Amino acid sequence: MPKPVGIWPENRLSVEVFLSMRTQWRTGMNGPTGFDYGLPLSRVLRHLRVPADRRDEVFSDLQLMESAALSAIYES
Asked: Which of 1, 14, 37, 75 has the maximum number of C-beta atoms within 10 A of its C-beta?
């Protein structure tokens, strides 16, 4: 079992969004390609009450975590 890691308070909301999007991966013939940024993301942001003034920051963080996850998935 992986060892738990700490989350800095300023990153908590971004991590919550990432975890809430965990079932919203778009997939192609070779596996996951990225998150569905349409309606699912809007609903997650609204559900988690992400303040409007933090949405750009959270979205940028989400893309960074998405990219890292895809790199880990396709690591050879």
From this structure: 14
> Measuring CA to CA, which residue among 54, 59, 53 is closest to residue 17?
59
**H/E stretch holding 26:** strand 25-28
What is the amino acid identity at position 49?
R
Structure tokens at 68: 């890292």
**What does pTM read for this prediction?**
0.88
High-pLDDT (> 70) share of the chain, %: 99
Find all residues with CB under 8 Å of 26, minimum gap 6, and list them: 32, 33, 34, 35, 36
Nearest alpha carbon to residue 16 among 52, 65, 69: 65
What's the pLDDT at 76? 62
CA distance 76 to 58: 29
